[in-house]
Amino acid sequence: MLPSPPKISPARLHKLVTSQQDPLLALELVTVTSPTTTPHPATLHSLLLRLARRRDHLPHALALLRRLPSPPSPRLLLPLLLAVLRLRRPPQLFLSTFNSLFVAGPSPLPLHPQLLLRLLGALSSTPSHFPSALHLLRLVSSRLPLPAPLVLASHNLLIDAAARSGHVAVSLSLFHRLRSLHVSPDADTYRILTQSLCRKAQVRTAATLLDEMLHRGIPADPLAYTTVLNALCRKKQLREAYRLLCLMRGRGVSPDIVHYNTVIVGMCREGRPLDACKVVGDMMESGCTPNAVTYATVVNGLCVSGLYDKAETYLVDMVGKGLVPHFSVFHSVIKGCCTVGKVEEAAQIMSWMLDLGVVPHVESWSSVIRCVCKDEDCIEAELLQMVGR
């Protein structure tokens, strides 16, 4: 009979195992001392990861994994499986290892939802590993009884990853695959898809998804509407943008300041400030109060189109509501008044600006002074009005 191995402490065994350069010899140390010494979990975890870094040692790692006293945690399994993936071999090795552990092995391990999501996240973050993420998702969703929330979360994760990489076709394919699995997409799914479609200028398809979202009874995502509105405005489809803005209320979505400002900015950018003024009227009727961005956009848009009187009206309304405009907003109106020879109005706005504590730009001063100097009768009065405050 062979003599029993000497009993050593788990701490001593850990030191011996971690200092051994050859992982197979380290494994032998654990095996030999197993009758008398129970290794510390940290010892086994360290050895497992070292064994998983070489393809010829992988069977030993899997065997050791099944010898653990308790089911391995996701914190151990995630780096182990990623180590297998980094073996510079075809992804079949990684997938077969996963399959043997969780699907078709002699005693499959329970697949923790967090492990699956973290593993898919790690794979999808690297372009070269993204195909492996797709294979893994197909494997688990077809072979394991996953709960619907986990199926949805895992698909949303890869839909988002594909969309961020510009692979809209892959995102749509995963979206349609959810239906084949009898799992309903949620608001996040639609938001991810509409954003990716708009980035690819497929705005009409994105708008169709919003309609589908409504018909399926899924609560509307305001961010998805913002994305589509912005895309429509950038494509100069302002009529469609305004139509969608009007339809939102009928769909149970109350447009907020972001939705309205998106369309207002788009209209002013395309030289249609009067249409933007109509949207401002709509938003006020619906109970949405314009903010500084709303007024600044409309005032500047009106000034660019030469509608200085109307711009001044909105400027007065803005200040009357306690909003202090940026000096550039004042400058647009002052410059416009000077352009059409309205000396008194320009000087009054300059004085008003000073009263509010807004420092005028040097160009604002220059515009007013040049305009005043052309009218010799009012030079002294206007300068005293501006300076003597």
TrEMBL record:
<feature type="repeat" description="PPR">
    <location>
        <begin position="291"/>
        <end position="325"/>
    </location>
</feature>
<feature type="repeat" description="PPR">
    <location>
        <begin position="326"/>
        <end position="360"/>
    </location>
</feature>
<keyword id="KW-0809">Transit peptide</keyword>
<feature type="repeat" description="PPR">
    <location>
        <begin position="186"/>
        <end position="220"/>
    </location>
</feature>
<dbReference type="InterPro" id="IPR002885">
    <property type="entry name" value="PPR_rpt"/>
</dbReference>
<dbReference type="GO" id="GO:0003729">
    <property type="term" value="F:mRNA binding"/>
</dbReference>
<feature type="repeat" description="PPR">
    <location>
        <begin position="256"/>
        <end position="290"/>
    </location>
</feature>
<feature type="repeat" description="PPR">
    <location>
        <begin position="221"/>
        <end position="255"/>
    </location>
</feature>
<protein>
    <recommendedName>
        <fullName>Pentacotripeptide-repeat region of PRORP domain-containing protein</fullName>
    </recommendedName>
</protein>
<keyword id="KW-0677">Repeat</keyword>
<dbReference type="Pfam" id="PF01535">
    <property type="entry name" value="PPR"/>
</dbReference>
<dbReference type="GO" id="GO:0005737">
    <property type="term" value="C:cytoplasm"/>
</dbReference>
<dbReference type="Pfam" id="PF13041">
    <property type="entry name" value="PPR_2"/>
</dbReference>
<dbReference type="GO" id="GO:0006397">
    <property type="term" value="P:mRNA processing"/>
</dbReference>
<dbReference type="InterPro" id="IPR011990">
    <property type="entry name" value="TPR-like_helical_dom_sf"/>
</dbReference>
